[in-house]
Amino acid sequence: MPYTQILFPRTQAISLFSLVPTLAIIFAINHSLAILFILLILWFFLFRPFDRTEILMFIIGSLFIVGQNYSVLKSGGFSFTHKDFLLMPYYEPFMWGFYYLHIKRFINEPSESKKLEIKAILGLLITGACFSIFAQNSNLLTIFSFLTTAVLLTMFHERYDLYYAGYALVLGFIIEVFGVFSGNWWYPDPDMLGIPYWFITMWISVGLLARRFLIPFTEWLSKKIV
C-alpha cells in the first residue's frame, strides 16, 4: 500500500496533493487565461468522478465569490497584481470552487445530507455584510469579523463543523502566505507575514459556511434539477 494511503484514504490523499500542482501552476505561469485553462483540466482529472452536488458546489461557490471579492477589492481591502476583470485575475473565482471541493473531499464526512437551516442563511448574510461593510478598515474588519465568526461558532460547533473550520483555516494560511510572497496579491494593512489578522475569521467562516450552507444548499438544489 502506498505510504500516502497509510496516512490518508485515497480521497483525502488526492485532495491534499491537488494543492501542490495548483499553486505551482499559478506561480510558474504569468498569463491568467492559461492558468485557468490548465487548472480546470488538472482539477477535472484529479477529482473525477463528480456527483451533481459537487458540480453545483463548484459553480455556485465560484459565482458567489465574484461579488464578495469585488466589494472587498473595490474598497481597498486587498489588491491583486493582475486585474483582468472586476479587479481580479480570470482564474480567481474558480479557485474558490476548488477550495470548497478540496475541503469537502479532504474532510470526507461520512454523512453529508445536512438540512439547510435558516440560521445558516443568517450566518451567511451577516458574514457577507461584515466583509463588505468594513473591508476598507482592517482594524474594524478584524473586530467585527471576530464577532460574526463567534456567532457562527455559537450556532455551529459539532465535531465536523470544527473539522471544516480548522482545515479551512490551515488551507487559508497556506493560500494567503503563498499569494502574498509570490506577489499575486497584497494587503495594505498587514499584521503578520504580510497578512491581516482577519484572514483567520474569514477562512474559519469559509469552512463553517461550506458545511452548513453551501453543501446543504447544493444538495437541495441537485434534487430539484431534473
Written account of the structure:
By secondary structure, the protein is an all-alpha fold. It contains nine helices and two strands. The chain has helices spanning 3-7, 10-28, 32-47, 52-75, 92-107, 118-133, 138-155, 159-181, 198-224, and strands at 79-80, 185-186. A two-stranded antiparallel sheet has the order 1-2. α2 (10-28) packs antiparallel against α3. It is globular and about 40 Å long.
The overall pLDDT average reads 93
Number of strands: 2
Helix content: over 70%
The percent range for strand residues is under 5%
Q: What structural category arises from helix and sheet content?
A: mainly alpha
Determine the N-to-C terminus distance.
Answer: 41 Å
Q: What is the global morphology?
A: globular
The low-confidence parts are: 1-6
In which order are the strands of the major sheet placed?
A: 1-2
Tally of domains: 1
Short structural summary:
The protein is mostly helical. It has one domain.
